[in-house]
Amino acid sequence: MKKLALLTAGALAGGALTLSLQAFADKEASSPLPLNELRTFAEVFGRIKQDYVEPVEDKKLINEAIKGMLTGLDPHSDYLDPEAFKEMREGTQGEFGGLGIEIGAEDGLVKVIAPIEDTPAQKAGVKSGDLIIKIDDTPVRGLSLNDAVKRMRGKPGTKVTLTIARKSETKPRVVTLVRAVIKTKSVKFKLLEQDYGYVRVTQFQEHTVENLAQALQTLYKDNKTPLKGVILDLRDDPGGLLNGAVGVSAAFLPKDALVVYTEGRAEDSKMRLTAKVQNYARGAADPLAKLPAGIKNIPMVVLVNGGSASASEIVAGALQDHKRAVVVGTQTFGKGSVQSVLPLGNAGGIKLTTARYFTPNGRSIQAKGIEPDVVVEDGTLNANDQQPLRVREADLENHLANPNGDDKAPAKPVLKRPTIKPAAPAQPAPDNGKDAPDESSSREPNPKADYQLGQALNILKVQQILINKKGS
Predict the structure, then answer these.
(1) What sign does the dihedral 236-240-246-250 (CA atoms) show?
(2) Which of 139, 147, 134, 142 is nearest to 174 (CA)?
(3) Annotated catalytic, 321?
(4) Which one of 9, 115, 333, 412 is least enclosed by Cβ atoms within 10 Å?
(5) Contact yes or no for 163/172 (Cβ under 8 A)
């Protein structure tokens, strides 16, 4: 009788839900709710409450249902509880506590898209494409991305152990990391040599455009004469804020040039973002107003690789389509979808995919990425003399398809791009009693040690030679 009473109560609750949903459906006649499926949801909810081996709070069941509803859509949609929502906002502001890893979902597991530079993860040798299978003693399979992030973040100074599978290795790798306050440096810069500047964007954050403007002004000042070329390094940049991508592109493009446009179902998801101050400035002042005029025309190379994602791909695609820069490196990640963060009444929010990105010439970035004009491998070869495997958007479970059916490189490219193989590694320098810098844990710009960077600098010099010949 007790069981029958519970079933009856569940049926009554389901009936009440049905009446409520039916009333709402009547108001939304153009898009009726799937009442049969919602009845099934109510039935499953009642069964769990009644028969599960242990009591479960209603809040937990509803939260898990919401998570499943979102994570089942694509790898980038997710539910953010109030704590995760706060952490997400802190991340875009350039400071948060954790390890410094950009991650994605794959077959119920967690894959590393890219480690953030100068963080515990990057210094410990975590690489793009690594598969995280355990966090401390907790298997990752079945955890949502949000749960995985929660377990990896924590109080600075505390330790966390990651068990990592790497496709080029037969045994899992176990690394213990010490959590730190992650203060990501959005823009780094240096004069590679006289007349040639280097700017690296590690992540697109709130202050990226201002930092880029300061970097370019300093490079011109330090060089004492106008630069003859600049390299924009977007390798392993996992993306970030859209207005940052527009601003970085606007620094090198003519005013009002189209940077990116988006297409989605809702009207407010359809945007055309051009190189004008309203699309990238955080305030009324234009952070790019004082840039040297020559920055719009000097020869330029953009460096990319499989860890360049989202906002990085927007910049590379815009500069490539406008023939403003030569894109050098390897094919990018292919994250061409727009996530809108929508706040909820519980102080949390949802991260929902609402549109796709397109380059100025109408190319969809989704599951395809940006193909370099000159393919240059990074020189990190494994034992089989093959380039290390990288996870890309097209490898992720439930990824959105490319609307142009362009998920793979074209079988018959219009222009065959040259592939430059890495030269033999340089001989080690003689021991001078000092510890040599660890090249694997830091990307200090050095054209002699960084093969891709060296080739990019050579391309700039060739462009300058051609300009001089044309001028004479």
Answers:
(1) negative
(2) 134
(3) yes
(4) 412
(5) yes
The pLDDT, as a whole number, for residue 108 is 74
Alpha-carbon distance of 122 to 72, in angstroms, equals 30
- End-to-end distance of the chain based on CA atoms, in angstroms? 99
| Choice among 111, 190, 335, 368 that is catalytic | 335
> Which residue ranges form the domains of the chain, and what is each CATH number?
95-183 (2.30.42.10), 187-339+354-421+444-471 (3.90.226.10)
Q: How far is CA 288 from CA 204, 296, 333, in A?
A: 16, 11, 28
Give 230-287 as a DSSP string.
EEEE-TT---B-HHHHHHHHHTTS-TT-EEEEEE-SSGGG-EEEESSGGGT-SSSS-T
pLDDT computed for residue 109 by the predictor: 80
Residue 185 pLDDT = 73
Crossing angle for the helix pair 145-152 and 82-92, to the nearest 10 degrees: 70
Cα–Cα distance measured from residue 59 to residue 65, given in angstroms and rounded to the nearest whole number? 10
C-alpha torsion angle, residues 327, 105, 398, 75 (rounded to 10): -70
Low-confidence residues in the chain, pLDDT < 50: 1-29, 381-388, 409-419, 421-442
Q: What is the pLDDT of residue 414?
A: 31
SS3 content of the chain, % helix, strand, coil (to 5): 30, 20, 45
pLDDT tens figures, 238-286: 898 899 999 999 999 999 999 999 999 999 999 999 999 999 998 889 9
Q: How far is 448 from 357, CA to CA, in rounded Å?
A: 36
Please count the CA atoms within 13 angstroms of the CA of 173 that sit on its side-chain side. Answer: 15
Query: Catalytic site residue 49?
Result: no
Decide: helix, strand or coil at residue 429.
coil
Say whether 159 is catalytic.
no
What confidence score (pLDDT) does residue 96 get? 66
128, 144, 310, 337: the catalytic one is 310
Q: What is the pLDDT of residues 321-344, one digit of tens each?
A: 999 999 999 999 999 999 888 999
Predicted confidence at residue 434, as pLDDT, reads 36
- CA pair distance 45, 48, nearest whole angstrom: 5
Distance of CA 201 to the CA centre of its chain: 12
Instruction: Name the catalytic one among 236, 237, 321, 450.
Output: 321
